[in-house]
Amino acid sequence: MDPVDPATEAFVAHRNLLFTVAYEMLGSAADAEDVLQETWLRWVDVDLGTVREERAYLVRIVTRQALDRLRALGRRRESYVGPWLPEPLLTAPDVAEDVELADSVSMAMLLVLETLSPTERAVFVLREVFDLDYDEIAEAVGKSPNAVRQIAYRARAHVAARRPRGIASPAETQAALQAFQRAVETGELQSLLDVLAPDVVALSDGGGVRHALLRPVVGIDNVARLLAVGWWKRDAERSVELVQINGGPGLLVRVDGEIDGVVAVRVENGYVTGAYHVRNPEKLSRVERETVMTRRAW
Question: pLDDT digits over 220-229, tens only?
Answer without folding.
Answer: 999 888 877 7
